[in-house]
Amino acid sequence: MLKTSRRPAIPRRSTRAIKFWGIFLSVYALVMIYPWVRIDMLMGVAWQPGPVTYALMGAVPLLVRFTRERLPRLVARWLLLLCMTWLGLSFILFVFLVLFEPFNLILSPNPLHAAWTLLGATALSAASGAINAQLIGTKTLRLHFQKLRGNLRVVQISDVHIGSRRPGLLRRIVKKTNALQPDYIMITGDLIDLPHIEVDELRPLGEFEAPVFYVIGNHERYIDLDEIDARLRQLGFTVLRNEETATRQFQMIGIDDADDAAQVGTQLSQLDLDREAFKILLYHRPAGLEAAAEHGIDLMLTGHTHAGQIMPFNLVVKRVFVHLRGLVTHGPTTLYVSPGTGTWGPVMRLGSRSEITCFELSGQSHPE
Predict the structure, then answer these.
(1) Which CATH architecture has domain 137-364?
(2) How many Cβ atoms sit within 10 Å of the Cβ of residue 3?
(3) How many CB atoms are closer than 10 A to CB 225?
(4) Tens digits of per-residue pLDDT, 211-231?
(5) H/E run at residue 74
(6) If exposure means fewest CB atoms within 10 Å of the residue's CB, which of 56, 195, 305, 336 is most exposed?
(7) pTM of the shown model
(8) Are strands 243-246 and 251-254 parallel, antiparallel or unpaired?
(9) Per-residue pLDDT reduced to its tens digit, 3-29
């Protein structure tokens, strides 16, 4: 009788990882390499980059991304800026090419003219996006909650991404935030996205004129989380790590960012929540709204999506997160998804804007 040997089964988690990286690298190559190959074809120039050149165009940004912690911080920051700008240009050109190809099939315009038009449109869009990314707007929302005692002004900051963005951005954010005269400041993660950002570079954060509550985002998890925690506490932040605290007017809850879809429900079930108190929940990503409602959360503040940052990438983000930006109500809970105060990756915004959000909350009036 012949014996047959079975190949060991590939664990499901490994299969998912292989599938994810296969899709990711395919899409990445399509966005980073195809646009420039197509432009070369349209221009018909005498010198044509070879496969090695195109491979390097795609590989270098990834290499910088994964080796940045071993590079001097200043070098890593500038290399990341260059690589992410290249990524932004490639993505914008890719979008224009998707629109161009059907037009090209029908009308067959002059290839050289088409190439220069595509490059010009890409350059103008990227320049517009770069200027827009430097602008920080303020948005004021007025909300009423029956459970709240008195009135409250809260300012939310999210997704600043110091590291990808230079620390000088903090001074502008702090100045604009203080001008709003908030009672409390809430920071919903991704404040920092490069390791070894020292306290001196974060010093402007100590100039906030109101108490600051902070929760971590996914980017803090990827780098020196414990050191970030210590630095921000040193600057006077209240860092909430799956815990709650109380003020005179409300109960404050902060939950660590996690890839687990059940994270909000799991952590809330382990906390001592005051059923009668007005409750504010900080969580980095717009997930767990139903669980928050089940636990009687009144206001949930999140970020993470950047509102897509560069359109039409918002359509992709919308496939992952149902709530892309703005206000959503579910049962007793009002959710707000910030479009972010900074940017990640390319310092560009098209179809979105950076925002500091001011919430003017009104409630029951009680005599002192």
Answers:
(1) 4-Layer Sandwich (3.60)
(2) 4
(3) 16
(4) 999 999 999 999 889 999 999
(5) helix 73-107
(6) 56
(7) 0.89
(8) antiparallel
(9) 544 555 556 666 777 777 778 778 888
